[in-house]
Amino acid sequence: MQFLDDSLHPENQDKVVITVAPYGPEWMPADFPEDIPVTMEEQVQKAVDCYEAGATVLHLHVREPDGSGSKRLSKFNELIAGVREAVPDMIIQVGGSISFAPEGDGEAAKWLSDDTRHMLAELTPKPDQVTVAINTVQMNIMEVMERQCIEGTSLAGPAYYAAYSEMTVPAGPAWVEEHLKRLQAANIQPHFQLTGLHSLETLERLVRRGVYRGPLNLTWVGIGGGFDGPNPINAMEFVRRAPDGACVTLESLMRNVLPINMMAMAMGLHPRCGIEDTIVDQSGRRMTSVAQIRQLVRIAEELGREVANGREAREIYRIGVQYKDAEETLRMNGMAPNRAPGQKNVPLRAA
């Protein structure tokens, strides 16, 4: 992305789109009972509370009545319907893993099968977005976890610690292409969760081949353990390489969340918060999803950036928009066109 001399001035930046991930599938309800919703009514109310606090994108996972992460599409349909009725302007973004919590002590933390994840394109009512990973990678969320921050939680137990250390994200080429095909056919927007430049480069190749034809909503996920680490240089290089027309959110883990979010908002990008990312503040104290949203709203106000409402967030994300071919997709996302036969150097973008 290009930055001009006045790009850090708030009047030249989009309004802030706050994504919240308040369902925290890696935690058990006993880890933070004050803030982990379990019943369907509580899960819908959590979305309402987050929206009223200032979040306009809901990263959605679902729990069963016993508090375990749900893998039933019917439960997702139920929660989506409830949220849609309660806060119709909120962007509903289904976590593409569905739920990666292990089934029991000592079991691996696995994402659902390729076929099951493809069925996210058939959810009813449709979500606005489904998150999509690019390229299979390790997802060891424990690598940068501080022991004092998870002390007393389920993640501190040896079995869960091992399970979440060995987790991988299955996102191979055949699955990605088929998944994008199905989501686009259902007019569900992919939100790309990218683990580093290798994923961004693969996504660009998919665009240039016409596999994906739509707006580029990207989240850089700096959590280490096979993804980029929460190093500002990693984030800055990702931002530098992202297309000019992309909408970029930065995401990190635990006490890295707030500094990364502050960087994002200062640069005109967008933040993500919620207990899926951190259950503690900078002092290690428990911090609810709503408190995290309110903190970001305060910081946005200090920076002079207004917080987007639901309608404005939909415009920024270009929800519902698709393009006819690769060339239109490249142009609308501010990317150089594909090379014409015999063309030298990098093709220039049209003025």
UniProtKB/TrEMBL annotation:
GO molecular function: 3-keto-5-aminohexanoate cleavage activity; metal ion binding
Listed Pfam families: BKACE
Keyword field contains Ribonucleoprotein: no
UniProt entry keywords in alphabetical sequence: Metal-binding, Transferase, Zinc
Keyword Metal-binding listed: yes
Necessary cofactors: Zn(2+)
Domain of life: Bacteria
PANTHER family: 3-KETO-5-AMINOHEXANOATE CLEAVAGE ENZYME (PTHR37418:SF2), 3-KETO-5-AMINOHEXANOATE CLEAVAGE ENZYME-RELATED (PTHR37418)
The protein's name in its UniProt record: 3-keto-5-aminohexanoate cleavage protein
